[in-house]
# Entry
Amino acid sequence: MRMNGRNHLAWGASAVLSFSLLATTVGFADDKAKDNDAADAAKTESPIKHVIILIGENRGTDHTFGVYKPRGKHQTISNILSKGIVNEDGTPGPNFSLAQQFLVKPQPLYYVGAPKAAKAAYGSTGQMPQPNTNGAPIAQGESGAPFVPAFLAELATIDPSPDFNPLTNTILTTGFTALPADTLDTRIPNAGVLPNGPFVLQGANISDDDYTGDMTHRFYQAWQQSDCSVANATKANPTGCLNDLFPFVMATYDLSDNTVPAVQHNFSEGNEMGFYDAEQEQASTLKTLADRFALSDNFHQSFQGGTGANHFMLGTGDAGFWSDGNGNPITPPANQIANPNPAAGTTNKYTADNNFSNCSDFTQPGVAPIVSYLEALPYRPEPNCAEAHYYMLDNTNPGFYPNGFRAPAPAAQAMIPPSPVRTIGDALNEKSISWAYFGGSYNDAVALSNDAVTAGTAGTLNSSTALAEAALADPAHALGVAYCQICNPFQYATSIMGDTAQRTAHIKDTVDLLADIQAGTLPSVSFGKPDGLLDGHPSSSKIDLFEAYVQQVLDALEAHPKLKAETVVFITWDEAGGYWDSGFIQPIDFFGDGPRIPLLTLSEYSTGGTVNHTYADHVSLLKFIERNWKLRPLTDRSRDNLPNPKMRDDQPYVPKNMPALSDLFDMFDFNHQVKQPFLQ
Amino acid sequence: MRGLDLRRKSLRQASVVLHLALLCSAVALAQSSPQSFSADIVSRDSGGVSLGATAKLHAANHKARIELGGAADDFFLSDADAGTALFVRSAQRLYLDARQSTPLTRIFIWVDPRDPCRQWQAAAITAVVLGAGEWHCEPVEQAILNQHQIIEYRVSMPDGQSSYGWVDSMIGFPVKWQSADGNLFVLENITPGAQPANLFSIPPDYRKLDPKALLERIKHSDVWVDSPK
# Structure
């Protein structure tokens, strides 16, 4: 079998059989390769020699673990079950009103804390927006998920992606809505008459194996949904974020006409309030891992809004900005600059829902409300907005294509020019500590990028469009469109992506992550990101597909006990994706934090089903790496300069020394090692 | 230039090793000037040592079929007249553009013996392997082997790397190729003779894979970034 695979690879052909080769070897190898593990030589503060950070898409803490009871002795968790908002079966609980959502009368300008007098709870004035199938697939497709089974088999043999494996082959064919597009999601029990608050995504026609409607998750919308004002502050919630405008903002930011019939372009509606019931075996792989290892219930998305900015923060501890490509800030094209002030005659339709703001200038639309709120907080966090810098607040493709091709006209191509912001990769390089970013379908994306360069489209089009055009002409590499460019913080960086040797050494595919585990060549620090099919994003993926991706990595690691013993796998998400969450939020600067997202910490030193309450966000992962390998903070302005929190006994989720971020070391007990399987 | 000279020297050494194979090929071809034949495509490293991979070639009427062997009944079809190269997955009853799936469909194609460069360049364009820069191809040497004229060509890619191809000018087909990494693809066991016509056609019930639906699904994810309006 191995010989067959080698023959095919010798011809360059396929690619096709490299997966079968991998499938053959994984699980049969012994751990001898581990004896040559170069990462062992690097001095570390803990027994951890390898960090793997796996990042899913768009799931919040209450959305995923809202109905979860910790298995560890004397462990507590803050979620909608423990707060009595819902019952264990997902029905409304005695404190359901704590989660009620509000609508707001029209205001003249953008706001992040709605005036109390302008607010009214849904129910008393109109019905809470109801869940919508927004973008979810209505049927099986020939080459789009969920696949017609026969077509999935075809794709599996055409493409070497580890996306197609025994774990995913079934669930990549299931979960379509069988409903008209963008309509009331009647699979959800009581859809159409759901009360004002969270609802469970479970019933005879819906489970964690179903595609569900997406919702907008962007910077200014997310700040507004959080509804933060010091006027709302309490001892338990000193930052005054009420999280009570989630459906309202979705229903209005894109609503161009207040008259009937309304002209609306998105159908996010009430999807924000959906959650899974872990106690009824929804997202059961994640639940099993939480039962056996450690879960944080105070881990946050680091950036209000979406994918690109959160991944950027994960890689840099900072925000990206528009530049001349040589590190000098310049003003982006006008169609990139945001203006969230309501358009005349509308309740809340954003005037220009764009991606960049100069937050050092209070006169810029949308800036003053956020900065004023920060200044009013008792700990007065700095906005951290450098003069004349237009920061990337929402998804913008990097100025480099996946193959390293530099977009020649980034402004015209709507791609942010190459970034000078220092990354954790740069810091690791300086200390000769090995690292890699493993992006699902990256190899295919490189092939499509080569196609686009040859065709000339890479020089004129946005990279999403250029790769899509290339995929139509090069179906053998079509899955390259599912590689997430904005998820790779290093793809923005001139120091990595602009250097062929750096790119080829550090930017790889999921298949390489599995191969490195197999070969005992796993880098000290690894970032793993599934492609768009498996990332768990609502509408385009499912939470159980991300679970399958996680399991594939864990299974590979399980086969190498020595490697497993000195590895921690952090499982987290880029952001909550617009899902409502009941947790406390600590604003750190202009950019965030945002709502809670789960963090699972899997190692032999973080076991027992514990739940950690220390305040943390994406940058805490950087802090863990930096402490473990004795690195300094990335820059003098990056968030990894923040101290570890001093947590309050009476308010265990609120640091006494805000702003502060955990380095996650307190999720481990390095004096207590427990060997147990990840999942079996 | 020194690098090129060294590569040429290595090429010479490899050529000595392969003379026997070429001699056998030429003997077979000398029986006639076939418009159709079959052969094995053997891969060897720069020292002439077999890399263990063998593919089967069928060539007739300006079309070529390359079978990879192994468990999968997959093959590539190229049509020099139409300028196409397809990857056919028999078990799945579908086909798709070969593009960069294999280098073989860019090498072992029927060529104009007076100007094989034109077809090689067209095949490279079809495969979308030519980046920005100049593609160059020129004859560098010729030899007579058993009454067959073998012409050697150097093909320089835009990235500056060079490959070498040897074309049997009597049949208008390459018989050997050395890629930039020094590895060799060589035709061996060439057997003139008619080839069944059905080897060069795609059964009518096979479908061409189209990734449009995949693109539509991806557009609902954060992977897809819309350009500003």
Residues 1-30 of chain A have pLDDT under 50 and may be disordered.
